[in-house]
Write a structure and sequence with these properties.
The chain has 244 residues and is mostly helical. 80% of the residues lie in helices and 0% in strands. It is globular and about 60 Å long. The C terminus is likely disordered.
């Protein structure tokens, strides 16, 4: 009988740990490492506060574990967009669209990422090593492999692979960061659903034209990717708050 109860106990412990991490991600993304309250995390997770220290030893340990959890999720989803069943060019367009949608909808990760960037500018390493290990390095390796494969096959133009990455992802970042200012220069709000959908579509269409040796082929690939990956629902006010 004892052997049968062990898996149940492990399952419960794993679920408790996951509940704590999800609550911690919400609290840290909203208030930062310094402002987050462990009491609030425990209450949200439905556990005794002592369990937080049992599993994670300290508040900073919990923060690092929470950051690693959400960073791993982001990396997993991005790597999934680089599915080798598709051509190299299509994988890049899917990854670019995945990145756009991540900024649009994964508000907790965006908030934590921005907090880490602020800490880094202050000279604090913080959780940047986790971000580099879980997200930046594995994705850069995959991007380089994909772009070089596309160049060798003749599908993609012979371009510097890192510049392609900067162009793919940098345009998405700039769009959301500049939205609060651009609303005063444009005759529409850049974060209205119609405007976001148009920018999302245009970003992929531009890449299909700019990166592919055969523009007609690139346009077809862009159209297919947009059809396969419809725009996810989002809340404008939340995107606005995280983009500021």
């Amino acid at each position: 009988m004892a052997k049968k109860t062990i898996p149940v106990r492990h399952d419960r412990a794993d679920q408790t740990r996951k509940n704590i991490l999800r609550a911690a991600i919400r609290e840290f993304s909203a208030h930062g490492l310094a402002g987050a309250r462990t009491d609030a995390i425990a209450e949200s997770a439905g556990v005794n506060k002592a369990l937080l220290y049992y599993y994670f030893k300290s508040k900073s340990g919990l923060y690092e574990a929470a950051f690693e959890e959400i960073a791993s999720e982001v990396a997993e989803r991005t790597l999934a967009a680089l599915d080798p069943r598709h051509s190299a060019g299509e994988r890049l367009l899917r990854a670019a669209l995945n990145h756009f949608d991540r900024i649009l909808t994964k508000l907790e990760f965006q908030s934590l990422l921005q907090q880490e960037m602020v800490r880094l500018r202050r000279g604090e390493i913080g959780s940047v090593p986790i971000l580099v290990k879980k997200v930046f390095k594995p994705l850069l390796v995959k991007f380089e492999e994909t772009i070089r494969e596309g160049i060798r096959s003749g599908e993609l133009c012979d371009l510097d692979w890192l510049q392609v990455v900067y162009s793919m992802l940098g345009a998405n970042v700039f769009y959301f960061l500049s939205a609060p200012m651009m609303q005063f220069a444009l005759p529409f709000n850049p974060l209205d659903a119609v405007a976001v959908e148009a920018r999302r579509r245009s970003a992929v269409q531009l890449l299909g034209t700019a990166l592919f040796t055969d523009r007609a082929h690139g346009a077809k690939v862009a159209k297919r990717v947009l059809a396969d990956m419809p725009m996810p629902p989002f809340k404008k006010d939340q995107v606005w708050r995280k983009a500021v």
